[in-house]
């Protein structure tokens, strides 16, 4: 980082001249790119900006107008400061020189004692070279950091965290709609960082290059294949902008390369929604206003709105933590299903966060405005139709819906209810468009109690003789068909695609093994509960 005028004046070789300064604090903060010694009055045309000019004033004119023009020329080319050594020409700086310097806010310094100009230039130039070398080292560090992230296939969140760490300020990744995809607050409360983000972001002009914006923002586009799909915003204090520009641009490049090389990964929008939903379900936030700021900045306004959670469950999805569940194919299928649910929500014009929530499920958190809230049932039906119209591989998905809740603090309960309803609906013959807990009734209760050892023991007591039989699957299927049809053997045989004699023979064998009369209502009820409980205990 280049030294400022104030820092140059503090150098021992300059301080020995007992400098008297006429300048504003902002002017003293100007960087000094070079030190130049000249006694030529028309030196302005030979400068290129950023120079600190040393002179004894011996060749300066007496005419106040010419002195003013001399200062104007220095200010016009962007000189950092004018330093005049007293003694050879002046015992005090001319009033015309002082007036002109104040008018143009050009730092004017009077050295009350002689100094060796060569010592000053050597000291400042050494400082500048050291600063340039340090800047080069910082740039190399930035380059190495983002190259390592790119080679390692780092996630967008990892890249953003590195940008914030190196830049030393909050960083936000947003899409073209000014919705926050990811943010790294760097110690700033999110309620402050993200408050009214979309409105504030629109004040920063969207250009194809790195630029500045309001609030000390530094903004750079994130591009891939010639398309600008987002931008990085560093909320700075306005200092060290050259270095922070390098950091921001290298971060944007790393994000773009990641997007090009990893096209099979989930979209950034889905990634952001998944992270938000995970934090909501696990209630990982310091206080409700923080998570509300993040959700609103992501494009889902929640202030003054009720919320409802839904969970889309695929019974054939392998469980997380298993070998099958962690395979690349399972991950790809999970991403495709999450994208399909997101598309279905957009087709229904349902404002929502959509992302994978594990266990073969995709979560939806919807904000209900006046229209959506009044027509929630119709909206859910449209969502179910749109989802089932998606060409998603695998078993037919089940949709669970939780209770409508007043805010994000209660959204976890809505998600729990939705997940329980969807999982409990597995095997339900009605095939409803969506399920609430009230729809799954006994199935829902048994699903909640499925890990209770007492219920597991009950299932074993009731069904053990059948479960250990060599034809267990056939006997259980026959019993299930009978109980599902209220004991009507003729209807059960037809549903099982068996002749009545064959079906009756299987029931008779089941009765002998169980030691029960299947015509007894209490026996049928107990066995039906046991079968439902066993279904709830099976991996889904």
TrEMBL record:
InterPro entries with a match to the protein in the record: CdaR-like_regulators, CdaR_GGDEF, PucR_C-HTH_dom, PucR_C-HTH_sf, PucR_dom
Domain PucR C-terminal helix-turn-helix: 475-533
Domain CdaR GGDEF-like positions: 289-423
Domain Purine catabolism PurC-like positions: 7-128
Domain of life assignment: Bacteria
Gene3D superfamilies hit by this protein: PucR C-terminal helix-turn-helix domain (1.10.10.2840)
Family: Belongs to the CdaR family.
Name of the protein described by the UniProt record: PucR family transcriptional regulator
